[in-house]
Write a structure and sequence with these properties.
Length: 385
């Protein structure tokens, strides 16, 4: 009996325990999923917030990048504008060496992200360029005022004139000497034979006086001592030239070259060769000089028939010789390219014309005195008695 009571007591305990455990499981089944669900929701919210913050940070970084990129592109654009302006003014004869020297400094500042310094430097360079341009304009105006004469308003048929010549490429202030082709022409050189380095030279006025002449103009291209690229060939010239006084050729082998034109003088006139390699001889020749390019032939502009150098396309002092009927025209102009010079020769009405040296070699003598120059000491020249 006692045994049965004990068994019943244990059964009651286990039943109570089972009921309690069941109640707990029911509670857990209801409570914990709700908690877990709430936790999952919080985690999802935190994850979304993280994504939002990440996106916002990325957007801010992109905005900073865009701002930095804009500053960079603005600086590069300003640099390119100054560089282009300097190049443009250079073609107009403005000395922009000081500006070109500072361009690498600005590049370093931009690459180093020193944008404020670069901007300040570029602003100053722009102001300096404008000052240089105004100074050039003032100098040109002073030159025009010096030479322009009230009696010189049209292209002369004889004598000297400094006047404005209008062409399809613009208007150019030009020194012009007109003389009759019957006057004795002399092509002269400082050397008596072919020369390749340290060649003799002399001023244009010396060529004029030494030949008992009164008019002269500088001759061919040559390698001046102030060009670093001319080391080992200083004052040499490779253009063919027939020396009137010596009665012989200089650089005769160069006659076979292409891209060279030549004017030859005889006792009765002049003959033009658009290409020197077409020359086979000329009876009664007194002198000849070749250079490039030819400018006019048979009243036609032929400058683009030649391979021009980049230097010939820039603006600067230019010189040339042309023939119109029985009149010789010696021409020196400024702030002009070689194609511009061809336009001037066309405006004068020359039948044929040849480009001569220019730049610092430009020289023109009339009535025994310089109208342009003296410029560099020259290896050769053309003079007229």
């Amino acid at each position: 009996m006692k045994f049965l009571l004990k068994v019943k007591s244990h059964i009651s305990f286990f039943l109570a325990l089972i009921l309690l455990l069941s109640a707990f499981l029911i509670f857990a089944a209801i409570y914990f999923p709700a908690k877990i669900s709430n936790l999952n929701q919080r985690i999802a919210q935190l994850d979304q917030l993280t994504r939002n913050l990440t996106a916002e940070n990325t957007a801010l970084q992109k905005e900073d990048t865009r701002a930095a990129l804009k500053i960079y592109t603005d600086m590069v654009g300003k640099y390119e504008a100054i560089k282009e302006k300097a190049a443009n003014y250079k073609t107009k004869g403005v000395n922009v060496d000081s500006i070109e020297k500072d361009l690498p400094t600005v590049i370093d500042q931009i690459l180093g992200k020193k944008y404020s310094e670069a901007d300040k430097k570029l602003t100053q360079m722009d102001a300096d360029l404008e000052a240089l341009w105004k100074a050039k304009q003032a100098a040109d105006a002073a030159t025009r005022a010096k030479y322009v004469s009230s009696t010189c308003s049209t292209i002369p048929t004889s004598g000297y004139c400094y006047l404005q010549i209008n062409t399809s490429n613009g208007a150019f202030m030009t020194h012009v000497v007109a003389l009759d082709l019957s006057r004795i022409s002399i092509v002269d050189s400082a050397t008596n034979s072919d020369c390749t380095d340290n060649c003799p030279t002399k001023p244009l006025l010396s060529y004029v006086k030494d030949n008992g002449a009164s008019i002269g103009i500088n001759g061919t291209y040559f390698c001046p001592p102030d060009y670093a690229s001319c080391a080992g060939k200083v004052n040499s010239f490779d253009m063919p030239l027939y020396n009137t006084n010596l009665g012989k050729w200089m650089n005769q082998l160069s006659l076979s070259w292409t891209n060279r034109a030549m004017i030859a003088f005889t006792s009765s006139g002049a003959v033009f060769y658009p290409q020197t390699n077409s020359f086979t001889g000329l009876a009664g020749m007194r002198g000849a000089i070749a250079n490039f390019p030819g400018l006019v032939n048979n009243n036609q502009n032929i400058v683009w028939n030649y391979q021009l150098t980049s230097a010939q396309l820039t603006k600067g002092a230019r010189g040339g010789i042309g023939i119109k009927g029985h009149t010789v025209y010696l021409v020196v102009t400024s702030s002009a390219s070689v194609p511009d010079l061809a336009g001037i020769m066309m405006a004068i009405g020359t039948n044929f014309a040849l480009n001569l040296d220019g730049g610092g070699s430009s020289s023109l003598v009339y009535n025994g005195s310089y109208k342009v120059g003296p410029g560099r000491s020259l290896p050769n020249a053309i003079v007229f008695k």
